[in-house]
Design goal:
Number of helices: 7
CATH architecture of the largest domain: Roll
Structural class: alpha+beta
Order of helices and strands: EEEHEEHHEEHEEHEHEEEHE
Number of strands: 14
Shape: elongated
CATH topology of the largest domain: CBS-domain
Distance between the termini: 39 Å
Radius of gyration: 24 Å
CATH superfamily of the largest domain: CBS-domain
Strand content: 25-35%
Amino acid sequence: MLIMIERIKVGLTLEKEEPTMGVDYEGYIREKMQKKPFTINPDASFYEARALIRDKGIRHIPVIDKGGHLVGLITDRDIREAAPSDATSLSVHELHYLLGKLKVSGFMKPKEKLITITSDVIIEEAVQLMRDHKIGCLPIMDGDKLTGLITETDILDFFVDVFGLKMKGTRLTVALEDAPGQMHGVLEIMKKHNVNIISIVSPTFKVNGKRVAAIRIQTHEYENIVKELNQKGYEVISINKWSPR
C-alpha cells in the first residue's frame, strides 16, 4: 500500500553552524531516512541473508531485483522463522543442504503486503503509520524505485534529538491553564532570565484540567526561574537535571 501525502513546501534554511542537518530542513522523511540501506537480491540464499543481518547488525533488509525495483522485505524475525526448530529430526548435513537451497524469495514478505511511503511524507505521518500497523520499518519509494528506508531505530534517534536529550540542561514540567497565551508568559520568564530553551513538548492529555508542558532549558541553574514561575501562577510539577549519557 503506497501512502501518498500532498507536500506543501515552506522550508526553513538553517544557519551554517548546523551542518548535521544539511542545507535545508523541512520535516520530511527524506531528511531522516537511510538513503543507502543494505539490500539483497531475491535469489540470494538463506545463509546470505542471515549473514547480512548478523554482520551489519540490522533488522530489516529490502529485497531488490536486478532492475532496482523493490520486490519484498525480510527481517531478522523472518530469518528465525525460516530456520528449522530445534525439534527437527533432520541431520546437520540435511539442514545445511535445505537452507542452502532456500532463497530469499521463498520467505520474504512480498511488496504487495508492504506499507511504503514517499520521501515527501512528514516524519510524524511515518511514525503514526508504524505505530498503527505495528511495523518496524517503512520502505521509501519515489516512483517504482527504492530510495531509502526508515526504521524504528531511526525514529527513536529523531525523537532523542527533538527532545534535546543530547544536551545538558534541566527539564521543568509545568502545569498550565488550558487557555491561549499561557505559554507566552512562560517564554517571557525564560527570556528575562536569559536562558536558552532546548525543547518544549506538550502532550494532549490534561492533569486536573490543566495542560502539561515539559520544558528543557539549557542550564542547571534553575532555582530563580522556578521561583518566578511559581510566583506568576505557573505550577512546576517536577524538576529534573539532565546530562547526556
